[in-house]
Amino acid sequence: MPLDLPAVPSRVVAAPMAGGPSTVELAAAVGDAGGLGSLAAGYRTPAAVAEEVERLRAVSAAPFGVNVFSPVPPGDPARVAAYAELLAPRAAGLGTALGEPVHTDDDHDAKVALLAELRPAVVSFAFGVPPARSVEALHAADVPVWLTVTSPEEAAEAAAAGADALVVQGWEAGGHRGGSDDEPAQLGTLPLLALVRRVTDLPLVAAGGIADGQGVAAVLAAGAALAQLGTAFLRTPEAGTSPAHAAALATDRPTTVTRAFTGRSARALVNRATAELSAAAPAAYPEVHLLTAPLRAAARAAGDAEEMHLWAGEAHVLAEEVPAGELVRRLAAEAREALAAARF
Amino acid sequence: MPLDLPAVPSRVVAAPMAGGPSTVELAAAVGDAGGLGSLAAGYRTPAAVAEEVERLRAVSAAPFGVNVFSPVPPGDPARVAAYAELLAPRAAGLGTALGEPVHTDDDHDAKVALLAELRPAVVSFAFGVPPARSVEALHAADVPVWLTVTSPEEAAEAAAAGADALVVQGWEAGGHRGGSDDEPAQLGTLPLLALVRRVTDLPLVAAGGIADGQGVAAVLAAGAALAQLGTAFLRTPEAGTSPAHAAALATDRPTTVTRAFTGRSARALVNRATAELSAAAPAAYPEVHLLTAPLRAAARAAGDAEEMHLWAGEAHVLAEEVPAGELVRRLAAEAREALAAARF
Predict the structure, then answer these.
(1) How high is the ipTM of this complex?
(2) How many residue pairs from chains A and B have C-beta atoms closer than 8 A?
(3) pLDDT score at B181
């Protein structure tokens, strides 16, 4: 019997966005406005995650989720080495060196143990189904587990693994593809929701291409229990988005799905790096992430949008510079209006 | 001042599907059930179109639309010739010869003149904006003109050309990409609707990835006036879908966007032809269509699904073998229910 969804009066979930954008301030503002805020445990130490949870609880009583990466198999070291050679001159151009492309599991077990103790309202996982012991540990602490899926096959797998809800991520979504398969099915949010509804009765959290209240209404009408938005929050003042990234979102650059930055498929704005590197980038996560991290940090510091990962969903140009709480309230009001207006 | 949408009590439009699937029987069944049926003028002579309209009017008093192709520029003859060389052994294997890869405008002007006289409830265009004289001729006869768009840029162009409504075709859609650009923006239906709503107040007909009543409800909530479904009707008994195509739709083959069959981008089920030919197929419409037509006809006659164009949207596996009128009524009832259930 799946554990219940937390109460989310606005029906809006702020997507976990690791690497900076998801902040305590953003999660608090979203939660206080009746949304579900998220912290992103990825790339952080367990101690840093514990500190964030503590800070969030000090400023907000609202429920929130924490997202953890599932371990993935290592990539081919020869392909990683070849990619490093290709990257070396770019790093030199930015006055930095490449990072160490080691394979890690991002401290998966320690983070799960910590979260079983801290008991957020939800623990969600990206990159497929985590080990059975992770789901068991969280369930033993009565913490609902959300798994991310990008195809009906992954949905069946996640349901069998004991998920309490599925984050159904359409092809439109910005940032990493969250399913287990890194040669992802390219199913759009609407057909994916329809296909997933055929394989499970679990509550669905729809993600991908939802840019406004009408988009929220659309996925609720399509059978989702909640709507998860990431890109829409990237330009809120509470988000930790870098200035170059926030500025690029407001342009009409197209997006592409690339492994160039992290070794795992993710949707980003097209820039020089995606154009020149995507074809050569191997499937090797987090090796490539660690390899390119100093390069991207240098580009960010220099405000150079051409060498950074500019994660973005397909409707990125609609992301607004508006306080996150106001955005949540507006999305809910627009969604209610849209559902009423659509009746016939 | 745009001409009004026809009354469509079910909010469901059956997409025009040239080359066989759209029949008089399908349009009549859809129209009689409160949907908007479509005839597809593409690939047919003006006389055959006139005869279809007459037959439809003899069996149904319901309004219907007719779809016409806009003329497109010719492809590179050298690339077409090279592609023909690649195709020759495949045609021989099926005991046939290739067709003549000439460039035509599919009798555009004659069809528009005919339809200005016959005055269906709607004339829609695929492959971008038709010549100004076509829009003017239809408007002079008070026939509303719908233009197909796949990006906000195309939407602005179509609105400026005098469209009365826009068919907003998401990346999920089966069959040909209907916009002007054959290097199509790959925007999913949901973000595309949100982006197009920002550039025009015209009524929108959403297409792509709509597989059931919840999908219909979703696009209405997202701001569309009507929902257009194609693949969902392919397995109805009234559709003229070939048996091999209908059978393949019910499998979980993935889809891909390919120019292999017609020289213009279209979403089809993956088969041997898409796997082996997509990379080499030039942008040359209708030259490649005419080149491969005998080959595909032979494959169809032999029931060989590997050498045919198996047009399909991303949710094709949900297409059901159910009478078209029953499908329209069910879609409308499910959509109403979904909109009510989603309220919060």
Answers:
(1) 0.96
(2) 152
(3) 81
